Amino acid sequence: PSWVPPWLDNLNVDSCFIYPLRWPIEQGKCGPENRLRGKRAVPACILKDGASMAYADEGEGPVVLLVHGWATHQDFFAELRRRLARNHRIITPTLRAHPGAERGSAALTIETLGNDIAELIVQLNLNAVTALGWSMGAMVIWAAWPTIKDRISSLIIEDMAPRISCDETWAHGLGGNYQAADVALTLEDIR
User: Could you give the angle at the alpha carbon of 113 between the alpha carbons of 112 and 114, nearest 5°?
Assistant: First the structure.
């Protein structure tokens, strides 16, 4: 994002990141061995349905997982990743069916995306993870929670409520009193 919290300005990290759209991969593996044989390629995680999920893995130290929202990709966090990588290991996946990622054959649901994130965390054997989910990325982390909760030390939710729509029991959904009936209209507009 163009806005970065002011406290990050004190971090000096000289790294950059470029990812390819396609790369040679080895089925059932997750890690650097699945890199493009070229410049600055990123690792890929092979998911249960055979789809590959690219992710950046930068820095050393405590692990921070940054999960992007709808219609974006891992580079949404490029500046934050660059700055935090000075003192942390930063993992930023691109969710399936998002720019630069394969769709795969699994149903395209929040639950599937949550399973993908859980699979990434397990395959990389990540523990004591600080997980940040932005917008839909928060929903993905919540969907993964039953599988990953013992591996997460901190959870940061950015720009997402536990429920999107408002009703008589929940008034804190999306702005403008977004109701359940509005969900169907939104989906219709997207299609």
Answer: 90
Distance CA 83, CA 160 (A): 24
Q: What is the pLDDT, as a whole number, of residue 2?
A: 35
What pLDDT score was predicted for residue 21? 29
Q: What's the rounded Cα separation, in Å, for the pair 80 and 68?
A: 12
User: Is 53 within 8 Å of 73 (Cβ atoms)?
Assistant: no
Concatenating the DSSP letter of every residue in 63-88 gives EEEEE--TT--GGGGHHHHHHHTTTS
Q: What confidence score (pLDDT) does residue 171 get?
A: 84
Q: Regarding beta strands 152-158 and 129-134, do their DSSP bridges make them parallel or antiparallel, or are they unpaired?
A: parallel
Task: Please check whether residue 140 is in contact with residue 65, taking contact to mean a CB–CB distance below 8 angstroms.
Answer: no
CA triplet 167, 186, 177: central angle to 5 degrees? Answer: 30
Q: How many CB atoms lie within 10 A of CB 77?
A: 23
Q: Is the pTM of this model over 0.85?
A: no
Q: How far apart are CA 83 and CA 69, in angstroms?
A: 20
Number of CB atoms found within 10 A of residue 155's CB: 17
Mean pLDDT by 10 residues, the chain (191 residues): 37 30 40 43 86 94 97 94 97 93 93 97 97 95 96 94 83 79 82 74
* CA quadruple 182, 184, 187, 191: dihedral sign: negative
